[in-house]
Structure prediction request, 129 residues.
Amino acid sequence: MRRLIATNSPFERKYGYSRAVVDEPFVFVSGVVGYEEGSTTLPPDIRRQVWNCWRIIGDALAQAEFDLADIVRATYYVTDRAYMVPVAEVCGEVLAQIRPASTLMTVSSLMLPEMWVEIEVTAKRRSVD
Prediction:
C-alpha cells in the first residue's frame, strides 16, 4: 500500500509533492535542500547545507519506519563544481558504511539561488531473517 510522508515544509502542499512516498519495500525521498531546522533559512555554508539535508532525510526515513542504512540509491545535485568535493566528503561521512549507488552532478541552478545542494534517496527495506 502506498503511504505519503509529509513534513512541515510549506512547499509540499503548495507545489503538490510529498517529502517521501512509501511503496513497500521501498521509500522514495524527494529532493531535499539544507534548510535550518524549523525554518526556511539556508545557511551560507555548503557543508552545513549538506548536513541539514541528511538530518531532514533521516527524519523522513524514520517517519516512514526506515533507516539511513536502508538507502540503496542517492543522487546529489550541486550548483557549482566547487561544491562537489565538500558535498562528497560530508556524504562520505554519512554513508561510509552504507555505500549506496550514487550520482553527483552539477546543475545550472535549483529553485532559489541560495539553494546550493539537493539530495534525493531511495531506500529498500532490508529483509529480516
